[in-house]
Structure formats: structure tokens, C-alpha cells
Amino acid sequence: MCSDRTVRRIHLLRHAMPDTAPELAPSDWALTPSGHDAARAMGRRLPQGVTVLSSAERKAIETARCATGREPLIDPRFGEVERPGEPFDDDVRERRGAWTRGEPDARHERWESMSEAARRFAAGVADQESEDDLLIATHGMVMVAWLVSIGQVDAGPAAEEYWASLAFPDLITVTASPAPPPGPHRVPGPRAR
């Protein structure tokens, strides 16, 4: 990662509102027209001089392009939590909320665990060669899993509340060390936002 730097800013850009077409896989959902507008408006809040990355999901790529006017580097490790077989139904928010608060049950069978998602995301961050700060177009659940793993968001109901509060799009900035010290750690100050 960063050779001489001790910290770097990581700007997490949650994707803008997608067109939730049930006939498509969520990874193939495009942004709605208002999602495109919101992503362009978010661009005014974004820092300059960053390496722009995105998950491989269409909604994240489109958000990064609209917000930055640049082509992002694609890294599938920034993709949303793997949820094979998840139905497209009225229970989506409750089912995902249970996962986010760390209470998986039979509905989450075969889903990627919170720790697996966080490790995958962390590996994507750690492998970035650029010494620039990072802007990562990504997704709510995997973002929260990573934020919990680095001590920026509390686990349990607080993680679910944080996830539920994220907007489409949203921008969260954290300062991270290239190699966090072993054991639990928390950056002093308000929660990441």
C-alpha cells in the first residue's frame, strides 16, 4: 500500500439510486435518471487528486463516472455482500438489517459472512499501490462490514442503524493506517460520516 505514508484518507461513495429491476441481477442494475443527477451533484463534494475505484457492479461504476467524470479502476472486492438466492421481496430491508446487525439466520444461508466481506474489502484497500487518497464507489452492507471491522462503527444494532441511515448516494470519509495495529482500535471522534 502506501510506502512512506502513515495514514491515508479513504472516501467511501455509496452508489446512487438504482433502477431495481427484478428481472435483472442486482449487480446489473443501472442508475435511475434521478440517481445520475444525484451522483453528479455528489461530485461537487468529492476531493480532488484521489485514485478512483469501484466495485464491478454497474450502479457503482455509473455512480463513480457521474460523480468524478473519470473512468474508475474496477476491483470486484469492493462489491456488495454476496447473497446467493436472495429473493426480491418485501422482506429485503429486514433481512439485510439482520445481517448488518450481526444476527444471520436461515434467511442468510450461503451468504458471505460479515467478517468475510470485511476481509475482502480490506484486502482491496491494502492492495492499492497509489499513494493518493482513495475514492471507492461501493455498497452499503459491505461498507458497514468494513467500517465495523476497523472500529469506525459499533457492531450490533448500531451497525444496522448506520446502514439504514445511508443515503443514495452517500459519502463517508475515514482515515486509515496502512497496517492497523493488532487488536481492537477506534479512531477518536465522531462516527465515520
Structure overview:
It is built from 6 helices and 5 strands. The chain is an alpha/beta fold and 193 residues long. The chain has one domain (9-83, 92-176): 3-Layer(aba) Sandwich (Rossmann fold), CATH 3.40.50. It has a 5-stranded mixed beta sheet. Helix 3 crosses helix 6, helix 4 crosses helix 5 and helix 5 (140-149) packs across helix 6 (157-165). The radius of gyration is 16 Å and the shape is globular.
Question: Quick check: average pLDDT?
Answer: 90
What is the CATH homology-level superfamily?
Phosphoglycerate mutase-like
Label the structural class: alpha/beta
The end-to-end distance, rounded to whole angstroms, is 24 Å
Please tell me the CATH architecture by its name: 3-Layer(aba) Sandwich
The helix tally amounts to 6
- Along the chain, the helix and strand elements come as EHEHEHHEHHE
Helical content band = 25-40%
Regions with little confidence, pLDDT below 50 for 5+ residues: 180-193
Q: What is the CATH topology descriptor? A: Rossmann fold
Secondary structure: number of strands: 5
Strand proportion, as a percent range, falls in 5-15%
Question: What is the 3D form?
Answer: globular
* Rg value: 16 Å
Q: Can you tell me the number of structural domains?
A: 1
Quickly name the level 1 CATH class.
Alpha Beta
Sheet of most strands: 5 strands, mixed
Can you list the strand order of the major beta sheet?
3-2-4-1-5
Summarize the structure.
Helix content is 32%, strand content 14%. The chain is of the alpha/beta class and 193 residues long.
